[in-house]
Design goal:
This protein is 78% helix and 0% strand. With 280 residues, it is an all-alpha fold. It has two domains: 1-124, Tetracycline Repressor, domain 2 (Orthogonal Bundle), CATH 1.10.357; 155-280, Up-down Bundle (Four Helix Bundle (Hemerythrin (Met), subunit A)), CATH 1.20.120. Helix 2 (11-29) runs antiparallel to helix 3 (39-57) and helix 9 (156-176) packs antiparallel against helix 11 (189-213). The longest helix has 25 residues, at 189-213. Its EC number is 2.5.1.42.
């Protein structure tokens, strides 16, 4: 029984999200202050709560496609999942009282979005993609918020890069999975406008991510940053271009565009952290 409750939180993903917030702290302040460590359990708990509530609303689909999941396999009851997610959400939000009002606001906003996503947004074309992209980017906003409004502004650029790059990848992933989504009864953007037009939009989002990556120039990071980030930008744009060149889901999957885009995102993040810490 206990194993089921641990499993439903997707503990590895939740812990990684909690630790990732420290990257935002480092970018905002160049160091990790003791009081910022409270954000690790905050983000981990709210992420875990989102995973639990998502499984609750997916229980009927999982009963067919993923019967080994905790709720369909009866390791966790439906009522138990609801109570558990509520406790996790409340605990994560209350811990923000040891941070500041900006972190508390983000915790409340993200909790609301995670619930809304599980209940409704995931089935809405593009809206679900926007929610996922924001939630991914908001980890860096959390890290900046602990340093106050200035830290939040400082981390806006990395959040923007993450948002647009993630949105591009989410669009391409939906275009890859049209057949499976149709079977599952989902309604995604590629089903409405087609793979080709989705590829165009995904390329545009990737371009915006690249554009955002040059905003730190206004902080005089210099030629070293330009040289490093240009490598990541080329990978991101090339990945999106490969997606743009595809006419159907099969060719898109074979192109490896989403995997390459993910690598470009991680490289951009690494370069951003190095620049923020070493160049300042």
């Amino acid at each position: 029984m206990l194993k089921g409750y641990v499993q439903i939180t997707r503990p590895v993903n939740s812990v990684i999200a909690g630790l990732a917030v420290l990257l935002g702290v480092i970018i905002a302040s160049g160091t990790v202050a003791l009081d910022s460590l409270v954000l690790i359990p905050v983000v981990a708990l709210i992420t875990a709560a989102g995973n639990v509530i998502n499984d609750y609303f997916d229980r009927e689909i999982d009963a067919v496609n993923r019967p080994e999941r905790p709720i369909p396999s009866k390791k966790v009851s439906e009522k138990g999942a609801l109570i558990f997610s509520t406790v996790l959400f409340i605990t994560g939000i209350l811990l923000c009282l040891f941070a500041n009002y900006l972190c508390l606001f983000l915790a409340l906003l993200n909790s609301f979005l995670l619930i809304a996503y599980a209940m409704k947004l995931k089935g809405m074309p593009l809206v679900g993609n926007l929610a996922v992209s924001y939630l991914s980017a908001s980890i860096f906003l959390f890290g900046g918020a602990i340093a106050g409004p200035g830290g939040l502004i400082q981390n806006f650029v990395i959040a923007a890069i993450t948002f647009f790059a993630m949105l591009s990848r989410e669009m391409l992933k939906d275009a890859e999975d049209i057949e499976g989504d149709k079977t599952g009864g989902a309604k995604t953007l590629p089903m409405i406008i087609g793979v080709k037009k989705t590829g165009v939009l995904a390329f545009l989002m990737a371009f915006l991510a690249v554009f955002a990556s040059f905003l730190p120039l206004f902080r005089f990071w210099g030629i070293t940053y330009i040289a490093m980030i240009s490598i990541a930008d080329i990978i991101i744009l090339y990945a999106a271009f490969r997606g743009l060149s595809c006419d159907d889901s099969e060719s898109l999957r074979e192109s490896g565009a989403t995997g390459l885009l993910k690598k470009g995102m991680f490289l951009a993040l690494l370069i951003f952290i190095i620049s923020a810490v070493l160049i300042g």
